[in-house]
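TASK: fixed-backbone design
INPUT:
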């Protein structure tokens, strides 16, 4: 809160990160966004554990220029609001959305702790509203990602360039194939930890331009 008077003087602020600052509250976000939110293009709130849906609501209603939103490790955010309360993001075309859960040594993501509260339907609903503008999407270790998310990705994320579905083990070969075959702009797909995915997907999809990372371990790692 002591930072607010100085922050409000920054008339051209576009990128703002309070990543990992657990002292950040809804009151701080509300006052900061009210003063500076209309110019913010990138907002990083990962690890701000005290934030709730009220912060997400004010962001959606105020940040008309927002293109990047990172709300990883914010456990008080509920899937109900993500599904139905972010309709303002339809007019705010997010290009990068990051929602991660659970620590992952392979992805060097020790900061992403257990958050697993967001359901498949909520993510699918978010994509139905905002998927068209997304260019980068990270759902690393959001365990409930499944068939509905895959369907929404295939329908609404045709401009997606980078997708991280590492440790999303509810996605089948068929669901993954649907995503890759329909998202023709996709160039990078991360699948670390997706041990359920087989060669049926790896050699059966039709998108020759996508690079799949993490599905097959190198011979050195397999030996170890």
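OUTPUT:
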């Amino acid at each position: 809160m002591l930072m607010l008077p100085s922050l409000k003087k920054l008339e051209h602020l576009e990128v703002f990160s309070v990543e990992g600052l657990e002292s950040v509250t809804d009151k701080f976000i509300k006052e900061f966004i009210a003063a500076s939110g209309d110019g913010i293009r990138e907002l990083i709130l990962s690890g701000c554990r005290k934030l709730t849906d009220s912060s997400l609501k004010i962001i959606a209603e105020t940040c008309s220029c927002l293109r990047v939103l990172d709300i990883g490790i914010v456990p008080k955010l509920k899937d109900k609001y993500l599904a139905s309360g972010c309709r303002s993001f339809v007019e705010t075309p997010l290009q990068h959305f990051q929602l991660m859960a659970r620590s992952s040594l392979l992805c060097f993501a020790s900061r992403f702790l257990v958050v697993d509260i967001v359901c498949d339907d909520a993510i699918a609903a978010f994509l139905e509203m905002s998927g068209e503008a997304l260019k980068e999407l990270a759902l690393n270790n959001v365990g409930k990602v499944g068939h509905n998310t895959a369907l929404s990705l295939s329908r609404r994320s045709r401009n997606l360039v980078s997708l991280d579905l590492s440790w999303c083990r509810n996605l089948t070969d068929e669901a993954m194939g649907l995503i890759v075959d329909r998202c023709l702009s996709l160039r990078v797909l991360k699948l670390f930890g997706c041990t359920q995915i087989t060669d049926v997907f790896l050699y059966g999809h039709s998108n020759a331009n996508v690079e799949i990372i993490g599905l097959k371990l190198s011979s050195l790692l397999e030996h170890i």
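COMMENT: The longest strand covers residues 15-17.
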